[in-house]
């Protein structure tokens, strides 16, 4: 191996990535659209569950709160493959939820990513709201607010901090491959997303193409994060002063 | 301009003029094995404003917090002049450092009015009226936390008044304000007193106590050592602790 | 207000085009590009969408036993016959074949190219210090590889490395370590990362690689779309499918040879 060739996969990867984007490759666009659809929906559902759940854990004073927090924090580190496997056993035709025929559908992938992302959103929300609650607790008490009202107030007041929670969840969902591979099946034009495409191209030995797709994934992740953070900062200037 | 009367549930009967808003008997509160309130008995919330004075650590803030229900006493009783009704809170508390939500000034008031049971349709109008009362109408859309210290405290005060309380507890509300902001705040307090709200005011500012209060309760080491009309207190304080405090001596 | 929208979006996934069948498949047929070449012909002819889950023969057989598919297309004849005997499949039919090849570094440190049989070649690998990358994943290729060692495969973790991964991942590892490995010819020819590696031993009858198709039994799995599944099996073993397989080439090389008997 000569040294000149050592960088060759990387230059080829850039060229591949550029070519796919420049030509608006139809397959790539389809795969990207599905990636956005699945991850977007999963993060949306995760936020709808995780925000209230986290806020209740953040402000609530009830038996089992600490245990729930420990559990949620542990679930954050759940390996995607385990989630995929567990869901496969549930959604499989032979499994308890088999009658719904969800295995190998985008819906199954949304469910898998929701399971992965919800603990992240909930745990970060609990952290944010608990911190704010320390500041607001006395005020809430003098106003005679119930726990649900308190949670709702904290969610709205913590909305900018909570975008970070949603972004962290998006990152995990967008980059995750183990779970969607198992429950989605990586079926061409049906359940093939960016990460499973990368895995497939790697298994075909098309390393430069896989790396090129990885570059596109990275750039898109960066763009999403930069966009959301920009919006967040703009909103924060308007609301917090 | 005339203040529209804040929303008040019809069931709330006013406190009889000759009765105190709250009767405290042998109140005891221990924090980390220290008796911070050591057997206080007093009728508080008499018409007008009562200044609660005393050195740091005398238990003034904890007394107010206990009356507001934020602390659980180890002993004694607190009896209000009204039957316990969960739907209407008749005691309001303003903290030394205002706690404002991360929203606009107007949204802070609307949020509070919602908690106080004001119907949705009336909230914005009432909130605007409260803002005008605080001379903050121009800042309705300003984030509350971007207001100046004096403006923040005025906002917190009218938020408490939005509750239409019978008893208003003020914990050193102007401790960190400059004279001008203090004067603006005192105008609001004076108006509330004029409107019939009974006020308990913790302050170290003798001038403020003279200007606002008609009665002074002096606390030292968790006990009441003096309870007199305010003019008498500043002229001829009876207890040695109060005299030492007024002289600026170190109290042990 | 949001809830019905989300519910609708969730259900949209499940409610997509109903005329499709799911094929549990080995990876080589997908990685080699065969499906991309022949499935559009079937889909155009019948209007049936074919969804391929390419996971390796062992996994495909297990998924099929869980009823997660309508058709099996794999390459492990004994296991396939057991699948049918156990009542999970209707019938098993030959579809096509290719062959396994032993690949390794071009300089061939174990000197396998000169051996007379695959068994001798593998013994030579074991006798040398050269590493051997095995799938170790219970796939069709793995089962065959294990059966080719005259005295069974060497102990794992010495120079015999079980990757526990698919063919592609295993070939990537073999290329990185300059290790020997057994793969099917179609996968190898379409594999891009060949990096100093080449076919060193081929042609032994023991390397014959038969692919079969099985329609999953509706008795075992009521969810099976029997009619469409049978149509696919009939098509791929029929004239159109067989000639489509025969005409799939990579450059000059035909990757699979159709051999359905009807």
UniProtKB/TrEMBL annotation, chain A:
Gene Ontology annotations of biological process type: transmembrane transport
Keyword Chaperone: no
InterPro entries recorded: ABC_perm_TupB-like (IPR049783), MetI-like (IPR000515), MetI-like_sf (IPR035906)
Protein name: Tungstate uptake system permease protein TupB
Cross-referenced PANTHER family: PERMEASE COMPONENT OF TUNGSTATE ABC TRANSPORTER
Ligase as UniProt keyword: no
Domain ABC transmembrane type-1: 32-228
Entry-linked SUPFAM superfamilies: MetI-like
Entry GO CC: plasma membrane
CDD domains: TM_PBP2
Keywords: Membrane, Transmembrane, Transmembrane helix
Topology class, membrane: Multi-pass membrane protein
Location within or outside the cell: Cell membrane
TM spans (from-to): 28-57, 69-91, 103-124, 207-228
TrEMBL record, chain B:
Keyword Protease among UniProt keywords: no
InterPro entries (alphabetical): AAA+_ATPase, ABC_transporter-like_ATP-bd, ABC_transporter-like_CS, MetN_ABC_transporter-like, P-loop_NTPase
One family name in Pfam for this protein: ABC_tran
Membrane disposition: Peripheral membrane protein
Chain ranges passing through the membrane: none
Claim: Membrane is one of the keywords in the record: yes
Domain of life: Bacteria
Location of this chain's protein in the cell: Cell membrane
Domain ABC transporter: 22-246
GO molecular function: ATP binding; ATP hydrolysis activity
GO terms under cellular component: plasma membrane
Coiled coil: none
Keywords: ATP-binding, Cell membrane, Membrane, Nucleotide-binding, Transport
SUPFAM superfamilies for this protein: P-loop containing nucleoside triphosphate hydrolases
Principal location: membrane
PANTHER family, per database record: AMINO ACID IMPORT ATP-BINDING PROTEIN, GLUTAMATE_ASPARTATE IMPORT ATP-BINDING PROTEIN GLTL
UniProt family annotation: Belongs to the ABC transporter superfamily.
Protein name, UniProt field: Arginine transport ATP-binding protein ArtM
Organism annotation: Pontivivens insulae
TrEMBL record, chain C:
Keywords: Signal
The UniProt record lists the keyword Signal: yes
Signal peptide feature range: 1-17
Bias (Basic and acidic residues) ranges: 135-146
Region (Disordered): 134-155
InterPro entries in the cross-refs: ABC-Tungstate_binding (IPR052738), PBP_domain (IPR024370)
A Pfam family this chain is assigned to: PBP_like_2
Gene3D superfamilies hit by this protein: Periplasmic binding protein-like II
Domain PBP: 22-239
Protein name (Swiss-Prot/TrEMBL): Tungstate-binding protein TupA
Highest classification ranks of the organism: Bacteria, Pseudomonadati, Pseudomonadota, Alphaproteobacteria, Rhodobacterales
Recorded name of the encoding gene: tupA
